[in-house]
Amino acid sequence: MLLAAVILIVGVALIFDFINGFHDAANSIATVVSTRVLSPNLAVAWAAFFNFIAAFGGGVHVANTMGKGIINFDMLRDAGPTAVLSVIFSALVGAIAWNLLTWWWGLPSSSSHALAGGMIGATLPVLSFQGLVGSGIAKIAAFIVLSPLIGMVLGTSLMLVSTWVVHKQTPLYVDVWFRRLQLVSSAIFSFSHGTNDAQKVMGIIAVVLFGTIWKDRPFHIDWWMIISCHAAISLGTFFGGWRIVRTMGHSLTKLAPIGGFSAETGGGVTIIALAAAGIPVSTTHTITGAIVGVGATRGWRAVKWGVAGRIIWAWVFTIPAAALMAALVYGLTQLVVRLVG
């Protein structure tokens, strides 16, 4: 019975990973599609490929943070297999529900923060505040602000440098070369997306396994977790939705290939660097900051700040909203268990 429950929840975790790719596909392809460097179908295939390739060079620092840096793993494991499975199931379902809602609304919210919020909301009814790792949550909260700012600074800087380098060239020459370079920058960002986002679910799967059927083994990330999570997120990216692409690539600001290159490179470099430090940042926040920074180089009015404001509100509400949903799922789950029992 326990093994079946573990397999079920690992499956739910991989479904979350697929939805994460589906939900965040826009982050990887919005700029390359909006600048018409690639068609939507080619863009998602390109992004999905580099999501998967990240399995072979992305490391597992973020996975370890998600597994042991938000909730007290040892305390949860000591609470017993039922507690572990209930908390992780509720966290995943709460995060999935928020992701699907924001996808439906066309808002690029953070899957990373939805999952973190889900874990917080599901843990509180079981372990109270003692079950939370305050320093890890504070780090994630800090980078809600810092990651888009870093992405904005890098995106703006790259845009200014690129513009200066080619200022004597004809517009046609600039367009042709940056269309080629945008294939590289899109690959960088898609690699960073896989590196950061796929690792989150590896950490969740490790919590499930090493908190239940393998509780006598040391916590670590196995190779099959890495491959399966990258495969799930890349498939999700391949089937990604168009709603958020419109918001990111068209509604926020208008981008030329040189701008798309600057935004993708700035966002991708930021995410790869922070993933190497084990910080599970939001790819959504980071690329949005980079896009806004690039747009702002053309003047304040080049950015549609009303759209940016809607996105920021989605950022603010993601962790508490996902936490509330996860807590509700946990409560409903316990009610069903009591009724069945």
UniProtKB/TrEMBL annotation:
Highest taxon, organism lineage: Bacteria
Membrane topology annotation: Multi-pass membrane protein
InterPro entries given in the database record: Phos_transporter
Pfam families, per the entry: PHO4
Keywords: Membrane, Transmembrane, Transmembrane helix, Transport
MF GO annotations: phosphate transmembrane transporter activity
Cellular location(s): Membrane
Membrane-spanning ranges: 44-63, 83-106, 112-133, 140-166, 223-245, 311-332
Protein's UniProt keywords contain Signal: no
Official protein name in the record: Phosphate transporter family protein
